[in-house]
């Protein structure tokens, strides 16, 4: 049993990606993601999970089951930065916003793919669409394992930047392939994530409904959805805690004992 993760930055062949590779390698980006570090060694995995930054030939992040690799494409970092710049210009945000946009979305994407890794390696049961389930897990991990230096408002802000990216990729025009895809439509993923954010504190986020980020009808059930998703993932993952990580059991059991 090897519970640790490892991290690799593969040199790209394309000249246009060389600078991105150098920057993420020198910053050790993959190792600096707080939620990934928080769960490194938390579960008794049957094999090591490899986090890899690589050239892919297209935008994306994905999990390779045979190699147990969570892959982040350099092309993704470039596209996210460009979207962050557009978001900054549209809203008049500070100069550092594009980097924050990249980091927030990279965290969510890699946690989403980590969810696929945990489902496969721990043989976790998932009823329904696995893509929706690991979206939930990514959001829960970002809410639970953010950096100690981040405020709750910053954590929620990161999740909302991830939701923004989901919506930004929507065209509103779908064919049969889009409806049949394993992923929900971009708009659905956006509102599902907004619902998880709202469900953490309905009073604090009441303005989301007024702003049109969530419908009133969906908002009414979001607190229950958030609790159900959190409880479901706790029940799935607690039996797989690594030796020495029992400190999490008491807190988790108190949460599971709560009643609606």
Descriptive overview:
- It is a single chain.
- With 260 residues, this protein is an alpha/beta fold.
- It has one domain.
- 57% of the residues lie in helices and 8% in strands.
- The chain contains 11 helices and 4 strands; from the N terminus they run E-H-H-E-E-E-H-H-H-H-H-H-H-H-H.
- It has helices at 18-27, 34-39, 74-91, 97-121, 130-144, 152-168, 176-180, 186-200, 207-210, 216-237, 247-257; strands at 5-9, 49-54, 61-64, 69-73.
- Strands 1-2-4-3 form a 4-stranded mixed β-sheet.
- A hairpin with a 4-residue loop joins strand 3 (61-64) and strand 4.
- Helix 4 packs across helix 6.
- It is globular.
- The mean pLDDT is 89.
Question: How are the secondary structure elements laid out?
Answer:
Layout lengths: L4 E5 L8 H10 L6 H6 L9 E6 L6 E4 L4 E5 H18 L5 H25 L8 H15 L7 H17 L7 H5 L5 H15 L6 H4 L5 H22 L9 H11 L3
Parallel strand pairs: 1-2, 2-4
Antiparallel strand pairs: 3-4
Entry summary:
The chain is built from eleven helices and four strands. The chain has 260 residues and is an alpha/beta fold.
Measure the end-to-end span: 38 Å
Average of per-residue pLDDT values: 89
Quickly give the structural class.
Answer: alpha/beta
Characterize the largest beta sheet: strand count, sense, and whether it forms a barrel. 4 strands, mixed
Helical amount among residues, as a percent range? 55-70%
* Count of β-strands: 4
**What is the topology, as strand order, of the major beta sheet?**
1-2-4-3
Query: Beta-strand percentage?
Result: 5-15%
Number of helices: 11
Shape: globular
């Amino acid at each position: 049993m090897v519970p640790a993760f490892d991290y690799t930055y593969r040199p790209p062949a394309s000249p246009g990606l060389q600078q991105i590779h150098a920057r993420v390698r020198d910053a050790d980006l993959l190792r600096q993601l707080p939620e990934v570090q928080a769960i490194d060694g938390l579960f008794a995995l049957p094999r090591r999970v490899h986090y890899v930054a690589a050239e892919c030939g297209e935008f994306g992040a994905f999990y390779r089951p045979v190699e147990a690799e969570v892959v982040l494409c350099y092309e993704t970092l470039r596209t996210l930065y460009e979207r962050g710049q557009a978001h900054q210009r549209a809203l008049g945000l500070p100069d550092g916003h594009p980097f924050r946009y990249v980091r927030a979305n990279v965290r969510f994407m890699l946690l989403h793919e980590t969810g696929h890794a945990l489902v496969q390696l721990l043989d976790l049961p998932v009823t329904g669409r696995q893509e929706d389930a690991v979206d939930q897990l990514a959001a829960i991990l970002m809410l639970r394992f953010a950096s100690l230096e981040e405020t709750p408002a910053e954590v929620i802000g990161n999740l909302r930047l991830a939701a923004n990216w989901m919506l930004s990729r929507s065209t509103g025009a779908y064919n049969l392939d889009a409806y049949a895809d394993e992923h929900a439509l971009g708009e659905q993923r956006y509102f599902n994530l907004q619902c998880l954010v709202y469900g953490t504190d309905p009073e604090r986020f009441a303005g989301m409904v007024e702003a049109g980020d969530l419908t009133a009808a969906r908002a009414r059930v979001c607190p229950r959805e958030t609790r159900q998703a959190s409880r479901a993932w706790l029940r799935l993952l607690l039996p797989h805690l690594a030796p020495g990580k029992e400190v999490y059991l008491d807190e988790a059991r108190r949460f599971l004992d709560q009643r609606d």
